[in-house]
From TrEMBL:
Pfam families: Complex1_30kDa, Complex1_49kDa. The lineage of its organism: Bacteria, Pseudomonadati, Pseudomonadota, Gammaproteobacteria, Enterobacterales. It comes from Buchnera aphidicola. The gene is nuoC. Residues 1-191 are annotated as: NADH dehydrogenase I subunit C. GO terms for molecular function: NAD binding; NADH dehydrogenase (quinone) (non-electrogenic) activity; NADH dehydrogenase (ubiquinone) activity; quinone binding. Its EC number is 7.1.1.-. Residues 330-601 form the NADH-quinone oxidoreductase subunit D domain. Residues 51-179 form the NADH:ubiquinone oxidoreductase 30kDa subunit domain. This is NADH-quinone oxidoreductase subunit C/D. Residues 215-601 are annotated as: NADH dehydrogenase I subunit D. In the C-terminal section; belongs to the complex I 49 kDa subunit family. In the N-terminal section; belongs to the complex I 30 kDa subunit family. Its main location: membrane. Keywords: Cell membrane, Membrane, Multifunctional enzyme, NAD, Quinone, Translocase, Transport, Ubiquinone. It is found in: Cell inner membrane; Cell membrane.
Length: 601
């Protein structure tokens, strides 16, 4: 039972009125199995039940959820929160820190979030790596960012920060700006220490130096190799050309995006979202904006919804084109990359015409978009709709049907649906295993439920070739969505007439002094959002992306958790590629579709 001193009083909401039948069934089974007294329900705007439990039953509860009928087979996310500075604690148990576990059920199409309260003198909690493979990296990141120890974790070391880093960056008492730190001086001692931390010692990475009759060779693949697709290092343990084992080494691109969210206003953080996955542009703005609008109780006009979808699908096509062409390049063909940049330029012409920017428009706004569509947008969109399908056919006919490419990629780097779920794989990698799960269809947002399009899926096994071919089909579906945007663009405003729309509608600002004052305050200080928590996931270019926001009643986020698809996708690499050749690794990396900013944040 949770210690009564940890719980606020009068926690008696009717949980079952808030959720669908599948979710209510889960809650009921949990209460029967573990006794309702062991759970504390936190009301939020997340859309899924948030249940606080004591850490001593976390293994039993997660195991039960994973093995029940219609199981919660994916650990979607795991991270922490520093609760010490929260002003509004009425609806949460007494805690200094907390760890949350976001579990997802494909069969039920519903989620559940478990939270465990921790006190300063006892920051220890059991690892769940024996239940969910992908918990490994999530627990390591939570350890380094908050100083929370996961007992019996196989390798509890820093993952994004250097191994000798001091302090826990996401704690509230850790400065958010370099100007708040003491000046840094690189002394000889520090230089030696840093170089020592970078040196490679196989034992520290869980590798053996030799087998019975020969030594293994160890090879650094990256962080500057062109086929590592960014500042990404993989340490390979080789027996000749065969990969015996490997260890992905990430963090070279870490920028503290979640920490930055705690120092920026709700409005001024929008430009940062574009750069989380720098090829996705407005796609990355969508989950953040929708989560903020949930906190603000803003319902946007239909025109805004369709404009947002149109921009998102344009960026989806652009990202997929780069992915497909660089995949082909990794296998050995150069020409498609140049074709792709020609095609992507046409899309960027339209994006620039609408938003004034290209890769990072920062164009979505709380309550709408920055401006209405300019005259002539429809003509440029029609050019793209007519152009892309014919060009896409050339990629397939010239390169993707090439016998050499097929032999290099078909049956390479395979995994099943069970493996995909256990590693937290989403997007085309998951759908290639035959699982039909696209957030736009199964949890529609921003009006996707009003569009007709198909979800391409594979047949039981995900391999390098099937993953790339699904992305080709997804482009055709995006073109179908864009046609519907072109033919059915609603009339109406491009911003909601709501007090928290930021910036406010221009006509109101120019004609009413109250609106002008509001404009100044919301743009400079930021809009004030009531204390609550919200969450939004979307189908991004590389898989499921989401924002989990906590407001403490201020102008800035108390906690922003950004769950990106590329992070778990890279964690899966050793289990897929061990036993293969180095040349297969190059093909596999090209088929994942990742960028390191999406991994490291």
């Amino acid at each position: 039972m949770i210690n009564k001193k940890l719980l606020p009083k009068n926690n008696k909401p009717n949980i079952y009125n808030s959720y669908d039948k599948n979710t209510n069934d889960t809650i009921q089974k949990l209460f029967i199995k573990f006794d309702e007294k062991n759970f504390f329900f936190q009301p939020t705007k997340i859309g899924y039940p948030v249940l606080w439990i004591k850490k001593k039953i976390i293994l039993d509860v997660t195991s039960f959820l994973k093995n029940m009928s219609k199981p919660y087979s994916m650990l979607y996310d795991l991270h922490g929160v520093d609760e010490r500075s929260r002003v509004f604690k009425k609806h949460i148990p007494n805690s200094d820190f907390s760890v949350f576990y976001h579990l997802l059920s494909i069969e039920r199409n519903c989620d559940i979030i478990l939270k465990v309260p921790l006190l300063n003198h006892d920051l220890k909690i059991p690892t769940i790596t024996n239940l969910f493979k992908n918990a490994n990296w999530y627990e390591r990141e939570t350890y380094e960012m908050f100083g929370i120890f996961f007992e019996n974790h196989p390798n509890l070391t820093n993952i994004l920060m250097p191994r000798n880093w001091k302090g826990h960056p996401l704690r509230k008492d850790y400065p958010a700006r370099a100007t708040e730190l003491h000046p840094y001086y690189l002394t000889k001692e520090k230089e030696i220490s840093e170089m020592e931390a970078l040196s490679f010692k196989p034992e520290k990475w869980g590798m053996k130096k030799s087998k019975k009759n020969s030594d293994f060779m160890f090879l650094n693949f990256g962080p500057n190799h062109p086929s590592s697709h960014g500042a990404f290092r993989i340490i390979l343990q080789l027996d000749g050309e065969k990969i015996v084992d490997c260890v992905p080494d990430i963090g070279y691109h870490h920028r503290g995006a979640e920490k930055m969210a705690e120092r920026q206003t709700w409005h001024s953080y929008i430009p940062y979202t574009d750069r989380i996955e720098y090829l996705g542009g407005c796609v990355n703005e969508m989950p953040y904006i929708l989560a903020v609008e949930k906190l603000a109780n803003i319902v946007v006009p239909e025109r805004v919804k369709v404009i947002r979808i149109m921009l998102s699908e344009l960026f989806r096509i652009n990202s997929h084109l780069l992915y497909i062409s660089t995949f082909i390049q990794d296998i050995g063909a150069m020409s498609p990359v140049f074709f792709a940049f020609t095609d992507r330029q046409k899309i960027y012409n339209l994006i620039e015409f609408i938003t004034g920017a290209r890769m990072h428009p920062a164009w979505f706004r709380i309550g709408g978009v920055a401006q209405d569509l300019p005259k002539g947008w429809d003509k440029l969109l029609k050019i793209i709709i007519d152009w892309i399908p014919n060009r896409l056919k050339k990629y397939v006919d010239i390169s993707l049907k090439n016998s050499i490419l097929i032999s290099r990629s078909k049956g390479i780097a395979t995994y099943s649906k069970e493996e995909a779920l256990s590693w937290g794989v989403t997007g085309a990698g998951l759908r290639a295993t035959g699982i039909n799960f696209d957030i736009r269809k199964y949890r529609p947002y921003s009006g996707y439920e009003n569009f007709e399009f198909e979800i391409p899926i594979g047949n039981n096994i995900s391999d390098s070739y099937s993953r790339v071919m699904l992305k080709v089909e997804e482009i055709y579906q995006s073109i179908s969505i864009l046609k519907q945007c072109l033919n059915n663009m609603p009339e109406g405003d491009f911003k909601a007439n709501h007090p928290l729309t930021t910036p406010p509608i221009k006509d109101n600002v120019l004609n009413h002094i109250e609106s002008m004052i509001t404009h100044f305050l919301q743009v400079s200080w930021g809009p004030v959002l009531k204390n609550n928590e919200s969450f939004q996931m979307i189908e991004a270019t590389k898989g499921i992306n989401s924002y989990y926001l906590i407001s403490d009643g201020g102008t800035m986020s108390y906690r922003t958790r950004i769950r990106t698809p590329s992070f778990p996708h890279l964690q899966q690499i050793p289990s897929v590629i061990s036993g293969s050749l180095i040349s297969d690794l190059v093909v596999y990396l090209g088929s994942i579709d990742f960028v390191m900013s999406d991994v490291d944040r």
